[in-house]
């Protein structure tokens, strides 16, 4: 799916009207990763999160099936669950209304005899989900196209890494006072690594990163095979439009994934959920898991400074259209092209 390049103007990173239009066109109809199966290994395991500003909970039911449910109480719309864990039922902390793992109302204190109250109608609505390569994706649009066929080409590339077998070993939620696209674009190129991440990833070779132009599907890939003759690290950067980002790594047989979930809060802010996944050689050792997540945060702090200053620059009266490096920033071209194509389709 070749996309023409239409560079985004600075307004796209700070204008409230443009941001609201993005919610309708880019986010509401599309899939986003919200959990990994390693977090949902047993009945009762759940992950509560937000998808495009909507509270949802992913749970493995007593029947062993995964479900996506609205995470908003049918009483007065208070979010029910927080974080991730294991529960026999969902209990709203506000007034103790409780639901089973299928979303059916179990108890509503003092509601007996209330005129017009029908407990069978107070069911948590289901949210559509699909499991792809171990990640649980959700979509708020019941009529959206299935995800799997859209990612068929990407699946062929990523299958050898067996990321469904990895485990979440660390997760952090970080406020980010800049537009979500600034974060996505920073992730999508290695051009800045040799100047900004010299100490945290000294061996990352910018000149051997290759953007693979997909012929189908709403995604991008860049593939770094390491330095010529290297037997060390290989890194795949992957984006599933609009805002699901993965860095899939293999280093001397050790497999890991860094997963970024960008929760949009406004035109100049978002919440970043950054998760570290690893194979048993790291996941089985608390010390190695801690080193992995600590290193990830060190790396991200370097990117935070870059993104913060980029957002400040985009507010300048002199900010203009980007002049991108074709050999190093082809993914950003594809990202901008996809955004413009989606707006054109919705016009």
Describe this structure in words.
This protein has 347 residues and is an alpha+beta fold. It has two domains: 10-28 and 149-346, Naphthalene 1,2-dioxygenase Alpha Subunit, Chain A, domain 1, CATH 3.90.380.10; 32-139, 3-layer Sandwich (Rieske Iron-sulfur Protein). It contains eight helices and 17 strands. The chain has helices spanning 16-27, 147-150, 152-158, 180-187, 193-196, 280-283, 286-314, 330-346; strands at residues 32-36, 45-51, 54-60, 66-70, 84-86, 90-91, 98-99, 105-107, 126-132, 135-139, 167-176, 209-212, 219-224, 233-240, 244-251, 254-266, 269-278. Strands 1-10-9-4-3-2-5 form a seven-stranded antiparallel β-sheet, with no helix packed on it. Strands 11-17-16-15-14-13-12 form a seven-stranded antiparallel β-sheet. A hairpin with a 2-residue loop joins β2 (45-51) and β3. The longest helix is centred in the last third of the chain and has 29 residues, at 286-314. The chain is globular. The chain starts with 15 loop residues before the first helix and ends with a helix. The model has no long low-confidence stretch (mean pLDDT 90).
Structural class: alpha+beta
* Low-pLDDT residue intervals, each spanning 5 or more residues: none
Percent range for β-strand residues: 25-35%
Instruction: Say which CATH homologous superfamily of the largest domain is assigned.
Output: Naphthalene 1,2-dioxygenase Alpha Subunit, Chain A, domain 1
Question: What gap, in angstroms, lies between the N and C termini?
Answer: 20 Å
Strand element count: 17
Which fold does the CATH topology of the largest domain refer to?
Naphthalene 1,2-dioxygenase Alpha Subunit, Chain A, domain 1
Q: What's the structural domain tally?
A: 2
Rough shape?
Answer: globular
Mean pLDDT: 90
CATH top level of the largest domain is Alpha Beta
* Radius of gyration based on Cα positions: 21 Å
Instruction: Count the DSSP helices.
Output: 8
Helical proportion? 10-25%
């Amino acid at each position: 799916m070749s996309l023409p390049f239409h560079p985004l103007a600075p307004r796209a990173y700070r204008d409230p009207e443009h941001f609201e239009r993005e919610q309708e066109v880019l986010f509401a109809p599309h899939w986003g990763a919200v959990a990994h199966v390693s977090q949902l290994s047993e009945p009762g395991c759940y992950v509560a999160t937000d998808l495009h500003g909507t509270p949802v909970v992913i749970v493995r039911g007593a029947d062993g099936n995964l479900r996506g449910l609205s995470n908003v109480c049918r009483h007065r719309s208070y979010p029910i669950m927080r974080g991730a864990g294991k529960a026999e039922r969902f209990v709203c902390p506000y007034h103790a209304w409780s639901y089973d793992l299928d979303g059916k109302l179990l108890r509503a204190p003092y509601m007996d005899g209330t005129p017009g109250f029908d407990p069978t109608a107070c069911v948590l609505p289901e949210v559509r989900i699909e499991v792809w390569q171990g990640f649980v994706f959700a979509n708020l649009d019941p009529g959206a196209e299935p995800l799997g066929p859209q990612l068929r080409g990407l699946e062929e590339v990523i299958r050898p890494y067996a990321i469904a077998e990895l485990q979440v070993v660390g997760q952090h939620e970080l406020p980010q006072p800049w537009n979500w696209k600034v974060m996505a674009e920073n992730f999508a190129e290695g051009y800045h690594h040799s100047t900004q991440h010299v100490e945290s990833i000294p061996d990352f070779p910018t000149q051997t990163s290759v953007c693979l132009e997909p012929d189908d599907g709403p995604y991008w890939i860049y593939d770094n095979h390491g330095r010529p003759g290297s037997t060390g690290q290989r890194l795949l950067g992957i984006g599933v439009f609009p805002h699901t980002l993965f860095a899939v790594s293999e280093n001397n047989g050790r497999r890991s994934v860094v997963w970024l979930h960008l929760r949009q809060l406004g035109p100049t802010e978002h919440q970043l959920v950054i998760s570290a996944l690893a194979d048993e050689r790291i996941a089985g050792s608390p010390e190695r898991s801690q080193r992995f997540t600590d290193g990830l945060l060190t790396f991200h702090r370097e990117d935070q400074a870059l993104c913060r200053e980029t957002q400040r620059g985009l507010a300048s009266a002199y900010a203009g259209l980007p002049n991108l490096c074709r050999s190093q920033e082809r993914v950003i071209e594809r990202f901008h092209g996809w955004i413009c194509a989606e707006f054109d389709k919705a016009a």
